[in-house]
Amino acid sequence: KEGKNRTKDKSDRATSELVMDDRTRVILYKMIQQNHISGIHGAISTGKEANVYNATLEPEDDDAPPIQRAIKIYKTSILVFKDREKYVTGEHRFNSASKGNNLRKVKQWAEKEFRNLKRLRAAGIPCPEPLLLKSHVLLMEFLGDKRGYAYPKLREATFSQESQEGSENPWRPLYIQLLGLMRKLYQVCKLVHADLSEYNILYHDNKLYIIDVSQSVEHDHPRALEFLRIDIKNVGDFFRRMGVDTLQDRTIFDFIISPEGPLDEPELSQAIEHLYETRPQVEDSAEAEAKREIDNEVFRNQFIPRTLDDVYDIERDSQQPQEGLIYKQMLADKVVTPQAAPEEESDDESEGESHSGGSNGSHSDESI
Ligand code: ADP
Ligand code: MG
Description:
Helices cover 39% and strands 12% of the residues. By secondary structure, the protein is α+β, with helices and mostly antiparallel strands. It folds into two domains: 11-141, Phosphorylase Kinase, domain 1 (2-Layer Sandwich), CATH 3.30.200.20; 154-346, Transferase(Phosphotransferase), domain 1 (Orthogonal Bundle), CATH 1.10.510.10. It is globular and about 65 Å long. The structure holds adenosine-5'-diphosphate and magnesium ion. Magnesium ion binds at residues 199-200, 212, 360, 362. Adenosine-5'-diphosphate (ADP) is lined by residues 44-45, 47, 49-50, 52, 70, 72, 128, 140-144, 150, 153, 199-200, 211-212, 360, 362.
């Protein structure tokens, strides 16, 4: 990596290799001048709606290693940039800038992410500490090692030899941990993540870190419960693939939204273990299997937030909360019928809810 003998033009050098618009460049330049960062390094992630970079700040003490930071820059315009690679690798994603990602809008997303991260921190949910927000540029704590390597996403997590030799599946405690975090997010932060998956959770040293909360919604958002169900489904799908004996989605749903119950560890984990002990035995018959299929079908028929734009539109449309009310009623009755599903289902449903994307994957592919 770079040495510390930077010259006066370090700000220029730090931003000159990045393809970005002037506005963004000025913001980064100021961050360097004001000593929030000393330099920007490689892109950790180039996504459809934002890029995340690793940055460093030279410490006061010259012998200390540089302080690592992460910078999330929301995209304000179409810049082909490195997305090109994704087309080559078959990960087709059309740049949402084509739908009019104007500055005002992306500023709102950055602002929302900043605020939501603060809420998570206040609740003690592991996530990057938000440090500075300037327009559509968010400076935050870097989740990674001292050399600038980011922690792996949950889907890329690997476990030490000894934890693999144990009789327990090493993914199971992480599953339990995540359910607890989801309850806390809902009960304490009053938020539903709305894009929770193995792509938006980082893993390090037996601990899960929640990231990418710009699209998260208030728990009283008209569609909050639908988003929660989708989050639960995605989490369940992933951990089942990892061989974890998961709880029923509905059981988890009730656990998360119930006002009664613990909000902290170890009580959270204990409550979840209790759910395992008291769960109804699921018969392994074809009939039970068919029942589960119907349950899944209901999920698939429900609205799925695909992009930030979608959620944005919903927020504007939320003056008409009928569907949310119907939905809540449905839950109260414990009768969920597919025909009550919202209208937005008309999009391609078959793959909408799986986070099949590659390195970034936080937002489902667009159905174009
Ligand atoms: P997107 O909206 O593009 O999905 P994310 O917030 O999910 O943006 O960030 C994209 C990727 O960048 C993440 O999957 C993660 O690997 C990395 N990343 C994001 N924030 C941080 C951070 N604070 N520290 C380290 N890596 C991060
Ligand atoms: Mg993401």
